[in-house]
Every structure is written in structure tokens, then in C-alpha cells.
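Session log. Operator J.P. requested a structure for one protein chain; no other inputs attached. Running the standard single-chain path with C-alpha cell output.
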Amino acid sequence: MNDSQAREQKTEPTQEPLYILCVDDEENVLKSLKYVFHSEPFKVLTATSGHEALAILQSRKNIGMIISDQRMPDMSGTTFLQKAAMLAPDIPRMILTAYMDVTAAIDAMNKGGAYRFLLKPWNEEELLLAVREGLQRYRLLRSNSGATVEKLRAESKEKLTSIAQLAAGVAHEINNPLSFVISNIRIFSKYYTRLHDYVTMQRELLNLTASPEQLRELAAAEERLDVSLILEDGAELIAESLQGVERVARIVRDLKSFSRVDTPEYEQVDITSCLESALALVNNELQSVATISKAYQDLPVISCHPGQLNLVFMNLLINAGHAITPPGMITLTSRHDREFVYVTVTDDGHGVPQELKERIFEPFFTTREVGKGTGLGLSISYDIIVKHGGELQVESRMGAGATFTVKLPRTQETP
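Structure written below.
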């Protein structure tokens, strides 16, 4: 036996076993998870509610991973993960749910600090890989390894990829039924126009040929059945319905665009469309805290990776929302000059102190409280923009909000 083998043999018994905590209100799911993990080198703890799981976190050591359902009766998975992060911020957290919900995924990752969002029924290999990566992340954090930064950067990209995959799945599920709904409404709109014209012609003929008594009966029937109201409002209702489903179709297109995070191809794109795609995904979160103001110029198309720029703009928009005390204002602008195109995201929040401005693009730097962010969003965004040959700049004063500017060259060599 050589020296290294002897050292390994000595150190192995001293390593304490790690636990993973699985939280789900369905006992059958917990049993299935135990079976999936039965041959893994860690032990499994289970809880059927967020409250029970929090009690376990307070009483147990060596928990290296949390897997939580999203929809539970006593508290949501996101709320549980937020509370868990306050108790044990170093423990990696993952959502495992049966519901494809992009907003819930974004909330779980930004508010609950989840590093993955997987769907039931799970793929066993994918689940095992995610858990092994989570436990490795826990060990890195506990060991203060020099490789921690690069490892967690990679895992954060995996987090973004998870959202992208979810977005692609939602878009696919919605697209087919949405297509025939739009088609049917357009056909019905044509039918309604013909029906309206026919009823109008019928009225004119009856006024010429029917007796006064018959006309009184028809007038009473029209009033009872609200025929005049139907004829007046019908076209407007159809137009509003068509406008609504076409808006849904636009969101689906945005989801498809967002789902191209991993594709290596650069495309010729007006980057304002990337900003709009990102806004469509986080609009529900932002509209409760701020009014969105837009001032866009027509931009020339540039060579870029639209999926990655979507992620940059999503991070900037979410950060703006977190910086604001409601009700606030977020202003989005786009412009260009001879060399560059610019997109800015401005909030009227609390601002960034001068002494911290130089640090906000550093990995793991965050001004948010523990458990409410990894400090990697701006760091990854900065890297993406630099790889595009551009700059990500910030201007801010305390109490006067912040402006983040994405500056990209109009012409560049495609990687």
C-alpha cells in the first residue's frame, strides 16, 4: 500500500455521513425518492411539510442537500426554501414539482435560492446527477476550496439552463392548443360579420313587409334576448379575445427564445426584442412593485446570442425590482450610435453606495440578506456581455436609484 492510499484509508472513516432532506406532502413520493437514493453514499431524511422540515434543519447536523416539493398545503416550496436559507445558507436547495410554472421556477431560484428546478415524473439519472452536484457544492463551500467560484458559476449556468428547459416545455405544451384557438376565433370573427350583415338586412326587409303587431313582437323579443347589445358588443368581444390569445402567442414565442440558452449559434438580432422577451417572463413579479416605462429607438441588428442576452436582461430586471420600495418606476431605453447599441435598465430604488459600485460584478457579492440571492447573477451577466465584446456599466447614487447599461458593438467577429 502506498502513502496516498494509506492516507485515504485513514481519513475516510473520520468523514461524517451526509444527509439529504426530502420534503413532500405525499408519502408515496418520499418512498419513491428513498428507493432512488437507496444505494447512494448518503442518508435520507423525510418531512411531509415545510414546518416539519424546518424543525429537522434546526435539530440535525450534516444535512448537505434539500429537495422540496413546490405546492404543499402549509407553505409553498419557495417559502420553505427562503426560511431554510436563513437557518442554513450553505445547504444547496432544489425544487422537485409536477407543475410546469416558469414564474414559480424563477421565484424558487431567486427568492428561495434553489439551484435546480426539476419536474415530476423525474428522470432518475438527471435527479441523481443533480443531487450529486448539490452535495459536491456543499462540500466545496464547507472546505473553502479555491475551485468554489468556478464550480458555483457552472452550477448557476445550470440553474439558468433549468429555467430555459422549463420554458421550452411550457412553450411546447401551450403552442398546439393555442394555434387552433387563434384559428377558430379568426374564423368565428368572419362568421360573426356575415351574421351581423344578415340580421341587419332581415330587419330592413321586415320593416317594409311585416305588420305593426309582428314588428312589436320582434322588438319585444329583441329586447328580451339583448339582440341589439349582442350585435353591438360582439365584434368588440371577438377582437379583444383575439388580442388576448395573440398576446399569449407572443409570450410563447418569448419562451421559445428564452429556451435557447445552450445553443452555440450567434444570430442577427435587434436586442430590444431580447429585453422584451425577458420582461414578458418577469412581468408578473415586477408589476406588483413598479410601473414599467419604455423609450426605445429602432436599433440595427447585431450578431449576438439572444438566449444569453435574455438572461442578462432578466437578471437586470429582477435586480431592479428588488431595489425598489413599491410603488416604484423602472425605465427601459434603447439607442445606438455609429459604433455601439445600448440598452439601459433604470430603477428609482435605494441605489448602490459608492464604495460598493466597484464590487457588484464580483462573484458572490450581494447586498441582499442571506438566502435571497447567490451574488452570481450580475457576475454571470457581466461575463456574458464581455464575451460579446461589450461592457456592462452601472451608475448610481444612494437614494437616487441605479442605471445598468448594456453596451454592445454593432459589428464584431462571430465567435
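Operator note: Residues 1-14, 369-375 have pLDDT under 50 and may be disordered.
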